[in-house]
Amino acid sequence: MQISNAYSEAAQSASYRASPRHDAGPAENASATRSAPPVDVTTGKADKTSASNAIFQKYDLTNISPRDVDAMAKELRDSGFDDVGFILGLETRGEKWRSHMMQSLNDAGYEFDPSYDPTARTDVIAGLKEQVQTSQRFGDPTEFLSEQLSKMERLNAQAHPQTATSGPSPEMAQTLMLFQAQRIWVE
User: Fold this and answer.
1) Taking burial as the number of CB atoms within 10 A of a residue's CB, which of 21, 29, 58, 102 is the most buried?
2) Does the pLDDT value for residue 17 go beyond 80?
C-alpha cells in the first residue's frame, strides 16, 4: 500500500514539474517537450483533444490488459495529452511497472505469483476503487487516487457510455448513511 501511495505522490509532483514554467529558461523548458500531436488539417492547429479521445475510444479501462495499459499510456504521451499525473497513475496498472515492482520485491526477498499474465484483461477502474477504499481504511491519503479515479471514470464513460456507473457510488451511499446516523444521534 505504501509503495502505491509513494508512486501516487511522485506522479503528483511529476505532473507539476513536467509542465513548462514561465520563469524557466528555454533550456529548462526543453526537457518538458514531447513529440508534436497530430495536426487538424482543416485548421492547421495541433489537435490534442481528438487524438486523445480516439485513444480513449480504442481502450476500455474496464476491460484492458496491463500490456495494453502501457500501449495506451505511450499513445497518450505521444498524442500530446498533457495530464502527466494521469499518465503516470495509469502506468502503475501497466506491465512494465508491475514487472519492475515484482522484480524489486523479489530481489528484496518477497515472493510473488510467477503465473502473472500481462495479457489477462482486468478492470482498472475497479482496481483503483479498491485501492482507494483500502487506503481509506488504513488512514492513508487518498486525494490523488480519488482524483485519478474520477478522471478515469469520466474519460472512460465519455468514450464507452455503456461502462458508466449509474446512480450514486457505494462511497456516496455510505457517506449519506453516516451523515443520517450522525444527525439522528445528535438530535
Assistant:
1) 102
2) no
